[in-house]
Amino acid sequence: MPTAAGWTDLDSIRKWLRIGYDATGTYSFALQTGDDALLTQLGADLTAEFVSELGRDILTASYSEIHSGNGKSVISLDQYPISAVSSLVVDGMTISAVTGPFGFGYQFERQKLYFIGGVFPEGVRNILVSYTAGYAAVPADIVRALLEQIGYVYRSRSRIGVKSQTVQGQTDAFHTEELLPSVLGILDKHRRWVVAG
After folding, report:
1. Total domains in the fold of the chain
2. Alpha helical stretches, state H, the chain
3. Is 165 within the bounds of a domain?
4. DSSP character for 120?
């Protein structure tokens, strides 16, 4: 669940950055930096940026959407993974879940809603679906990406706007994009994609 620090918590951020922890992993108040408010704000801000980048919130929530029929037996919903469909209305007719292997009704998987024994008739905004989708907890790879990005932003705050720096003949180039490439790679796996069909 979201905390003041977004999809992670202050203690996890401190551990990732090794702030307040000695070499054995034991927390010590004496080793703190006094940056708790900054770290918490970074977590919240970057969580919001991740939501924007993903094009969706990833935690379980209820949704109602209106779609236009495509003349096919499958449509893609906006949120995933779908865990339940509470209602489906097609051209004013309520459709129930399919109850047998050869029945008439709907089924769903991940992001798709299937009309078994029928098609979603072509039309404009003629399908209304209410459903639940999302993850019960933030996936571990996203939490890791968030911690990595928090760490990067926290550690690089002293070189804002600096693309490279030379010290004693050694030049270091710095990443200057908003999100790290490794973080974008992880987010791509969870991004809201518009699926034709």
Report:
1. 2
2. 10-17, 36-54, 140-156, 181-188
3. no
4. -
Phi-psi region of 114 (alpha: psi -120 to 50; beta: other; left: phi over 0): beta
The verdict on 142 and 188 lying in the same domain is yes
pLDDT digits (tens, 9 = 90+) for 98-108: 988 778 999 99
- Hey, what amino acid is at 167? V
Of all residues in the chain, what percent carry a pLDDT higher than 70?
A: 84
Look at residue 175 and tell me whether its pLDDT is greater than 50. no
**Residue 173 CB-density burial (10 A; 0-12 exposed, 13-18 middle, 19+ buried):** exposed
| Residue 146 confidence (pLDDT) | 96
Q: Collect all residues with Cβ–Cβ distance below 8 Å to 22 and sequence separation of at least 6.
A: 28, 31
Answer yes or no: are the C-beta atoms of 142 and 47 closer than 8 Å. Answer: no
CA distance 46 to 151: 11
Residue 11 pLDDT grade (very low, low, confident, very high; cuts 50, 70, 90): confident
Residue 73 belongs to what domain range?
61-133
